[in-house]
Amino acid sequence: MAVSERTRFVRWALFVGLLAFAAQFAFSLAFLTSQAIMGVQDPRLGELFRKYFLVSAGLMQLRILAAYSAVGLALSAVAVLPFSVFRPGSRWPLPVRWLGFSLVLMCLHFGFVCADIQSHPQNYAEFLYDRGGGWRSLQVLLTDGGVGIWARRCSWVLTGACVLPAAAAALFRWPRRTLVLGGVVLVLAWSVQLSPVISGNTGPNVIVIAVDSFRSDRLFSPITPRISRLAETGVTFLRAYPDVARTFPSMVTIHTGRYALRHGIRHMFPTIEQRAAIGQTLPRFLRDRGYETAVVADYAGDIFPRVDLGFSRVDCPDFTAGTLMEQRALETHPFLLPYVSNRWGMRIFPALREFTSLSEPAELAARGKEMIGTLSRAPRFFLTIFFSSAHFPYAAPHPYYGRFTDPSYRGPYKYHKANRIDLAEETLTPEDRAQVRGLYHGALYAADEAAGDLIRMIQESPLRSNTSIVVTADHGENLYEPARFCTRPVAPSREGEVASVECEHGWMGHGDELWNEEGLRVPMVFIGPGLNPRRVEDVPISLASLAPTLVEWLGFRLEDYGLTDGESLSAALRGGPPPETPIYLETGAWFVPRGPARFHRERIPYASLLDFTELDVDHNFEVVARPEYEPIINGSKHRAVMEGDRRLVYIPLRDRPRYELLRIRGYETAPMEDEKELARLKRELERMITEIGTETLSSGYFVGPH
User: Fold this and answer.
1) How far apart are CA 86 and CA 92, in angstroms?
2) Distance CA 236, CA 241 (A)
3) Residues with Cβ < 8 Å from 133, sequence gap 6 or more?
4) N or C, which end of the chain is more exposed by having fewer CB within 10 Å?
């Protein structure tokens, strides 16, 4: 093949590859694009889209087309190499060259797509598994049949077969000096990557590792073997509770030491004014005293860019309505996802960091290690690392999504607990519920493996002697455990009647109720130099205790930090008894007004999520609660005070407020008849709410100033 002829062939091949990927873009745009959220089309979403995001959506599609084009050119360049580098190809007939190029290009693309379907099957379930029939069988074959593994291997082998001979042929034509210089550069780059950067760090340092939805009863179990082994070397509190079992308010409580009643973040959609009024924070307190402060998180950590907690470095995704639009646009381009579902793709499309299916704990741990390398140049640092994989929808990557699940399962939750609000929870079968629990366990196991590897790296580095580690969670998770009691006394009547509450199975999620322990209780583990290993299993503590504990642990005075609602655990870390003081709990905002769960029946109903939120168009189109709904949301909350093995739950209903006194033994909760204790805890709950927050008691209800 003459040089000019070979050049023409290469140019046309690149052009054909470009057209092939442009055609896939057009197909996805025409047939796969949808504005549905959670499987439901809502006219209001379309109106918001047309009003605010029509232009940005068009620009987003242009960026996606550019990405398709870049991938098409790159794969075509690889596929054309065997037919353009070596002169024997000049004797091949032109149809043979085109056929060979086309086959190699298709095999490469097919291999990468199949491999990513196995690695992140949740990204493709909407287009394959959920369609049923042959499409479902195809995805199951790729994931469970191991075809995806072989597709990945074959794609890399084929890429190597195309690139390596061509590279070798080119290398022989390069000067020897260039090769030697290139080798030296590679060796230096590798050595720099491997060398830990611990320069001038004297400590003390603190690293808080939070695992979303990490239930306390999953510690010291086969589901978390690495964290469990590490916890044996530290002080472990097994009855830690968030005041609000939702990520945003709970993480603010952890980093301030104050209840949501005081810092004001009481649900997932606070306004910018509420976020600006949270007051003193632990990272800010330490930053003002010479600490480098940072937070690293994946998708559930999107709360950190939205509130100033005092972190100097924030490596987390952001959550806005625009992010949701971009995320949905990317979801409907499955032919592109295999090439951008990685760290490089996330730099081009930041919305990918909000994909639940791309919450890979190993990748987050790698980012955490990089941040530790950066922070260790400072004299001392405070770092929070937040793992999201165990949060709903439990979309762990391969192989974790199948580790604890039944491979023969063919229900709607094969790869993740898809947020399908068109599927009523009461229709779930026992197999569905077992599958969801298995998905959660696999996601938690993945986080345990990554967090354990991160902690092991710290303990094998020079940081071991001056760095303390805290492992905890923002809340627990209900996984369809039965309600702990199925009958309760109703309003007093002359017959003293008792009503039966249906509870064949419980519910899934967190932040909605204060009866079951699974959605509330989390572990709090302190690992560091000078600690004598012990477990504290009987005394409940609040996550608000973490900040004051760390203030004293690091040698500062609580008086200098300011007001906290949690009691310091520093005495308990030294072997003393933990503080046995009452702790406060409340529910978050309910997202839907009705449903089969008990908290749906026993509450004051109000509007759904789409009705009580709005877009703050002046502040990056963030989703916030409408001001007029704020007193309704807060006034409808269930609340509780907890002391020892007793919990008093306040339940405001339309006709009257009601109180339930519960006794907690292990994870079992049961109604308790003790009028004297009920009255005492009721007074304590009233005192805490009225003294900590701005609410007052009116006609038996807790109401705010508005």
Assistant:
1) 11
2) 14
3) none
4) C
Whole-number Å distance between alpha carbons of 206 and 229: 20
Residues in CB range of 502: below 8 A, 6 or more apart: 486
| Among 61, 76, 37, CA closest to 159 | 76
Q: Which of 476, 545, 480 is nearest to 514 (CA)?
A: 476
* Tens-place pLDDT, residues 411-427: 999 999 977 654 567 67
Dist CA 672 CA 681 (whole Å): 13
Q: Which amino acid is at 77?
A: A
C-alpha to C-alpha distances, 362 to 212, 445, 649, nearest whole angstrom: 15, 11, 40
Cα angle 440, 444, 448; round to 5: 170
All residues at 6 or more sequence positions from 239 whose CB lies less than 8 Å from its CB, including other chains: 216, 521, 536, 537, 538, 539, 540, 541
The size of the chain, in residues, is 706
CB-based contacts of 661: which residues, under 8 Å, 6+ apart? Answer: 646, 647, 648, 649, 671, 672, 673, 674, 677, 678, 681
Kindly report, residue by residue over 145-185, the tens digit of the pLDDT.
877 777 777 877 877 777 777 666 655 555 555 545 555 55
Q: What is the CA radius of gyration of the chain?
A: 28
In DSSP notation, 522-582 reads EEEEEE-TTPPPEEE-SS-EEGGGHHHHHHHHTT--HHHH---SSPP-HHHHTTSPPP---
| pLDDT of res. 86 | 54
